[in-house]
Design a protein that fits this description.
The chain is mainly alpha-helical. Helices cover about 70% and strands about 0% of the residues.
């Protein structure tokens, strides 16, 4: 057993683990495809769920043009605007074979595991690496593959683009290579058009530019190219809206921030302050893994609770050690905070399920693993 662990700690062992994960998803997906109940064309004719609209929009793009002509107004639903084009590319390549798309999304899930690993790789001890990958694999199976991989939902793309953005951003800072910042900007733009909950993070980054430049961890030219690429992708939505309607709408929303809050929570703070605040407290607990508190049909997610405990331990460990300030680390935590804040304040997550949270949970897992590992190691040293 010890010999096997020693092998798995090596680069060859890590590669073997990744190949095994890819094969697992490929084989199980090839079997699962036979159980598909609804074809792509059937979804495109229906209007009950997000996946129906995504299918309809993707067919529209392929048949009538990139502006989604069937939508005569500003684009609003579903919110993952870029995912329509991902699906349109899939049906251009595979035809309206939804099984092929689900199979591809299974492989993207394997890719997400690989990207998250490489984002955290230099923070892990050699003996921790195989356990990190296996834990991430279990999480991916329990919370993504089981529920969402075989649905046409934008989160299946975001679970790849968000860690890919973070990895390129981190490598860009570490190596000061313009190519990484170009890729990071591109991926942030794609991630934002896939999950618009990242818009406030983009705004925060722009506002904090003086802080970024003062840190001297990124060259001015690299910041410029990063922002140009990110903005260029994000502006595709308002450009589409202007070409179709003659008006500029920056976000896929139909109302103000406060109106969306009222939709998610019809209670009034003035009339019922305890119930109003209690609703948001329940949403926080939901996000931490206490799902039945908002929707009895969901199950508790004890592994989420453990992950958030580990995440808190990581933050305590980080500040206690007064670790060297790293810009990539700072912005990753800011992204997690903003992402969850937007979901809790605005999104009716009890209706949509936990899919809105999943893309960033992959990143939370990484910090949680390190936090728990450091705490266990500290305890071992104390008792030995």
């Amino acid at each position: 057993m010890k010999g096997l662990l020693n092998v798995l700690q090596t680069k060859t062992g890590i590669t073997i683990l990744f190949i095994a994960i890819i094969l697992f998803f490929a084989i199980f997906s090839a079997v699962r495809i036979n159980c598909i109940e609804k074809s792509f064309d059937e979804m495109a004719l229906d209007f009950h769920n997000d996946w129906d609209y995504y299918a309809k929009h993707a067919k529209d793009i392929n048949e009538n043009g990139v502006l989604i002509p069937s939508v005569k107004s500003n684009y609003v639903i579903p919110a993952g605007f870029f995912y329509n084009y991902f699906l349109a590319t899939c049906i251009f390549v595979f035809g309206t074979n939804v099984g092929a798309i689900y199979f591809l999304q299974s492989l993207l899930l394997a890719l997400a595991i690989i990207l998250v690993y490489y984002f955290f790789e230099d923070e892990l001890q050699p003996n921790e690496k195989p356990f990190f990958i296996l834990g991430l694999f279990v999480f991916a199976c329990l919370d993504v593959y089981k529920y969402y991989t075989f649905l046409l939902l934008s989160e299946n793309l975001a679970i790849v683009t968000i860690p890919a953005f973070l990895l390129c951003f981190k490598r860009g800072i570490q190596q000061q290579k313009t190519l990484y910042f170009l890729l990071a900007g591109l991926l942030l733009g794609v991630s934002t058009l896939t999950r618009p909950t990242l818009i406030p993070f983009c705004i925060f980054f722009v506002i904090s530019l003086p802080f970024v430049l003062k840190s001297k961890q990124i060259k001015v030219s690299n910041v410029f190219w990063f922002l140009i690429l990110a903005a260029g992708i994000i502006l595709l939505l308002p450009i589409r809206n202007y070409l179709v309607t003659g008006s500029i709408a920056l976000l896929p929303v139909n109302g103000s921030f406060s109106e969306y809050m009222n939709i998610a929570n019809p209670l009034s703070f003035a009339d019922a302050p305890i119930a109003f605040l209690g609703y948001y407290f329940k949403k926080i607990l939901f996000s931490l893994g206490f799902l039945p508190i908002l929707e009895p049909l969901f199950q508790y997610r004890p592994h989420w609770m453990l992950m958030w405990l580990g995440y808190i331990l990581y933050l305590i460990y980080f500040f206690k050690r007064k670790s060297e300030f790293k810009l990539w680390n700072f912005y990753t935590h800011i992204m997690i905070l903003i992402f969850y804040s937007v979901v809790i304040l605005v999104a009716p997550i009890q209706s949509y399920g936990f899919r809105m949270i999943v893309p960033v949970l992959f990143v939370v897992y990484g910090f949680a693993f390190i936090g728990l590992s450091r705490r266990i190691n500290a305890y071992r040293q104390k008792v030995s």
